Amino acid sequence: MPISGTPSRAELVDHLVKTRIAGDVATPRENNLSHYRKLANGDRNFWLGLELGDRWTDEQDVLAVMAERCGVNDDPEYRYGQDTIDPELTVDALDRMAARLRKAADGEQRVLFATGHPGGLLDVHRATAAALRGAGCEIVVIPDGLQTDEGYVMQFADVAVLEHGATLWHTHSGEPMRAILKGLEGAGQPLPDLVVADHGWAGCAGQLGIDSVGYADCNDPALFLAESEGTVQVTVPLDDHVTSPRFYDPLTAYLLSAATL
Q: What domain of life does the UniProt record list for this protein's source (predicted)?
């Protein structure tokens, strides 16, 4: 069962490993390498709303960044079996995210939350939004009637999601975020000062020049590349869909405590 209360760093690292949010994660090495290769070969489904141009056409360069920022095995000859996320890197990134959340709170900034992985991360975002609202931030309310080719862009519990067939949808696309930002401009509303998200929602926001922080799995390299280039401010490495969403509660508690929210 998840630990209760706010964990220390050491307690959180232990929890991340036990629940496989980090450490030996469920994503196999061959899946990671396949995604790195597809990104390098220009498959835009793996660019997560970013414009990577021809800067990441060597999959070994992608692997090097993922080893540095996520903690996967750095050996290019290791092609099958277990892969890893370094829990220390996860907590380091949570500390960096906490600093940006604290800045948002101090400035009472407008913050937009969104997720392409509602089955795992919706409540992480919801709790963070509630904490920032309590600290004086304005949580952005998205316009009604937004949609993309995949479905409708909706908002539940302060978090923007993609809805399709009365179901919250898993998506890597940046188009839902693009629809929100265009919708806000069309309604004469200011854009967010900060986006807290994942997948293409975070990538698209960063690409369009908005401060963006988010979460990413070890088989989704684009946000880590964007962080290395400065397009996304923080990318937290984690398995973004473990067996229970409650396993993320100690991570959220640590993040909000570190941000003094």
A: Bacteria
